[in-house]
Amino acid sequence: MNMHTARAAIGRDTLKTILGIPVLAIRWDDAIALLAQLVAERRFTKVSFLNAHNANIAYTDPTFAEVLDDFLILPDGVGVDMASKLLYGAPFPDNLNGTDFIPAFLQASSRPLTVGLLGATRVNAEAASSKLSALAVQHKFVVIHDGYFSAAEEPAIIDRIAKLRPDVLLVAMGVPRQELWIARHIDQRHCTLPIAVGALLDFLSGTVPRAPLWMRRLRLEWLFRLWIEPGRLWRRYVVGNPLFLWRVVGQKFSGAEAGPGANH
């Protein structure tokens, strides 16, 4: 399904453009219903999430920005909410971060689905698969491969996905590799919904701890992650978050179109 057709069907007024990337402004239950409908109708749709970090990457990487233009993008985190307030006067209706939203979507889907898992380490992917199988017993979860494969191994992995043809393919390779990989290798012959899920399998496996619920409710999960992995994440949050908001302020005052169809 062409993403521009999908956006037209959803309606232009449900999209907010953040740094040139159209993001779905939709309630949690409506987003679950939309994904369920796409699967039921077997409408091939690439899905990803926008947060301050990958918005920054897309801002400086035209290839990544172009690839995202063909994805259905859901809002993830406090950064894009602040951007939405600055540009549109209101936050997104709900925070559809993949770590919470994807398991909720799978739990809510009563129709039995086949879900492929690709990415993370083998141990984490297997542990995530077990966790998901317990959360959503109606579905079949299949670990296709870990995220550490060579170019030589790629054709066999893609062939395995095509043979399985899962309804949902969770691709957990980090940004922007996962989106670029989906864009280059996955189409309607392979699955219905390829979803770029970042660290979801690591979180589900329990290897990477989640912030306590009170921190998540206060929208401070990023601070917890920074505390857990300062070496890897300080640049993303301490430098990246203010930079992202500075760029959004630039979008607001440059006269660049904030609505759908803004240029990258």
TrEMBL record:
Keywords: Glycosyltransferase, Transferase. One of its GO terms (molecular function) is hexosyltransferase activity. The keyword Glycosyltransferase applies. The keyword Methyltransferase does not apply. This is WecB/TagA/CpsF family glycosyl transferase. It comes from Mesorhizobium amorphae CCNWGS0123.
